[in-house]
Amino acid sequence: MIAKKHGKSFFVKLEPSKKLQRLFIAIHLLTLCASFANSLPFVLKLAVAAFIGLNFKMTFHKVTNEKRSIKHSENLGWQISNGGDFEAVEILTSTVITTSFIFLQVQDKPTIIIANDALSEDDYRRFIVKLKITVH
Fold first, then answer.
1. 92: which of 20, 56, 105, 130 fits an S-S bond (Cβ 3.0–4.6 Å)?
2. Contacts 24+ apart (CB under 8 A), 77-85
3. How much is the pTM?
4. pLDDT tens digits along 12-51
């Protein structure tokens, strides 16, 4: 009989990412520029710009203060916490992994963007390896 190897459980706590904050600001600034560089009437340009500003104000706080933890164990699989209890999730194979960002695709949830500066270098590398091993 072959003994089944059980991997260690995995746990990371994501810290707010300066890289993700800068990306968030850049995307909103580009969107704001595009809202004025189109052929819409000026009043509509202002309305679009107001919506972009409102979206930025409502969501930037979330990007700067979000405390998320992710863990994996052989028995329970992947679990994510947004500061409270852990919830079991299924990570999809459409997840994109790069050296700078992980675009974590979770079943029935919005994509979670994880920048490499949200974790220590070693934890980011371990996270990538764990994802590649466990997500099919």
1. 105
2. 77/134, 78/134, 80/106, 80/112
3. 0.82
4. 999 999 999 999 999 999 999 999 999 999 999 999 999 9
